[in-house]
Automatic annotation (TrEMBL):
Coiled coil: none annotated. It comes from the Bacteria. This is glucarate dehydratase. Residues 166-260 form the Mandelate racemase/muconate lactonizing enzyme C-terminal domain. The lineage of its organism: Bacteria, Bacillati, Actinomycetota, Actinomycetes, Kitasatosporales. It is an enzyme of class 4 (lyase). Keywords: Lyase, Magnesium, Metal-binding. SMART domains: MR_MLE. Belongs to the mandelate racemase/muconate lactonizing enzyme family. GlucD subfamily. It comes from Streptomyces griseoviridis.
Amino acid sequence: MSTTGTKIRELIVTPIAFRDPPLLNSNGVHEPLALRCVLQLRLEDGTVGLGESPGGAVRLERLDAAAKAVVGLDVFDTTAVTAAVDAVLLPTVPSSHERGWTTSAVEVACLDAQGKLLGRPVSDLLGGRVRDSVPFAGYLFYKWGEHPALDGREAVGDDWGEALDPAGIVAQARLMRERYGFRSFKLKGGVFPPDEEIAAIRALSEAFPGQPLRLDPNTAWTVETSRYVARELDGFLEYLEDPTATIAGMAEVAKDSPLPLATNMCVIAWEHLRPAVEQNAVQVLLTDHHYWGGLRRTRELAAVCEAFGIALSMHSNSHLGISLAAMTHVAAAIPHLDHSCDTHYPWNLADDIVRPGVFELRDGEVKVPTGPGLGVELDHEALDRLHRVYLESGMRGRDDTGYMRRVEPDYELRLPRW
Ligand code: GKR
Ligand code: MG
């Protein structure tokens, strides 16, 4: 194929804001809006590749810098594209993890464009799919029934209702099952004292016998508390996720934990793998192509994990359909994906920016799109609308703690809390 048409003409980055319910976590509560950036990578022949990245002013600024660095490069030379973006960020962004958020989004857009040029799905560019559909877990959150009235804004409810105790969590899981057919569940913990969250997991286990369950308090616990919870939940969880902070802390817990420990917090860059393996800190890694360097690097990461006997799962943040497409393609191409993937999609899909019809979460799974590239089409009207929401909101970063304090002024962020 000649390279005349495959050069990158421009990268358009559009910041958007979309609705998010009041989901609670160890840092506070989700704000009424979540931020993402949508990437449109236009080639000289007019082909457009799509990408999606977490939003906010800092990430937007980096993506804008990346947009300038990639013009004129060949879309098939993702090594050069990544190197160009990395080089432009390096002087101001020393963390490889942080640079990864930008390089990953650009790589996904390149792969989408490549797939469109070749008429092949992205999973083929990753070596081919080993499964036709990808299992996802129902991601359960403690939550308020509505975003309270604040700053002259009226209260905003949703059709999930309140979930602040074990019965509420079981009811939410039933709704998730009814709407999307999930066959495994993850509970976001770190919100209530550990015994209450242990009770919620036991209630889920009783309501859904035999279904894989996991609990993730996002480092809300000390090593001692983590050990206690691991003992209490032995036999109830497939893994315990980020009970405590740091590789060393997780390694302490792992020493006598009857449960495998998982992370998407202490092993988030290539340089973390060696100490994590040496200390046997984690037995399950939640990959996330959004910061591990893209879809191809995620496949490489999977091979490294396989070599060291670390099982694989997948992390997610609030996201929309381009990200779901990318997650689905890479999960389809990873031979040993040991657990269902996380996704926030049910919480956010009402504001999607891809045209409906391609994706359906059914029986807890998403069919791998077989059309060219990621297999999704941008809904330009939705994109324009959500861009206006972003501009009007004035919101430029995620602040779960600040929002919580505006609603409950005495709230203090403490990690570990218990
Ligand atoms: O959305 O509140 C949340 C989650 O806590 C998210 O921010 C985490 O990144 O889902 C994530 C996790 O598994 O840690
Ligand atoms: Mg997690």
